[in-house]
Amino acid sequence: MAKLSTEELLDQFKELTLLELSEFVKAFEETFEVTAAAPVAVAAAGAPAAGGEAAAEEQDEFDVVLESAGDKKIQVIKVVREVVAGLGLKEAKDMVEGAPKALLEKVDKEAADAAKEKLEAAGAKVSVK
After folding, report:
1. pLDDT number for residue 107
2. If phi over 0 gives left and psi between -120 and 50 gives alpha, with beta otherwise, what is residue 6?
3. Sequence-distant (≥ 6) Cβ neighbours of residue 44 within 8 angstroms
4. Whole-angstrom distance, CA of residue 79 vs CA of residue 77
């Protein structure tokens, strides 16, 4: 088999459907024992330089954390798919079942509040940090 260049490989991937590409990624991960998931940034818990109150007032990035799904798990899964862009049904279900789980990280106050409202309306327990 002839060795393909990076550009040729990318051209081949462009011709695949999303489902075919997803299956390829899974097979690639299994074959080479790697993961294609994006690394999650871990926030270091440190004391703010200017004091707790000043940092809280100036905070402009928030994390939306799903604490629990509550009684209406299916409704919460649907809302999670709305709130978190690009999630499939299985991924959304895994996130809901894996609660407590950060759904959105480093979003502005308006987006965090909107997501919290939608999730709580569906019956979920949510916190914004």
Report:
1. 84
2. alpha
3. none
4. 5
pLDDT tens digits for range 20-55: 888 888 888 888 887 766 554 444 444 455 555 555
* Polymer length of the chain: 129
Please tell me the pTM assigned to this model: 0.51
Q: How far apart are CA 64 and CA 38, in angstroms?
A: 18
Tokens found for residue 48:
């703010």
Q: What are phi and psi of 5, to 5 degrees?
A: -80, 170
Contacts of residue 8, defined as CB under 8 A and 6 or more positions apart, other chains included, come to none
Burial of 119 (0-12, 13-18, 19+ CB in 10 A): buried
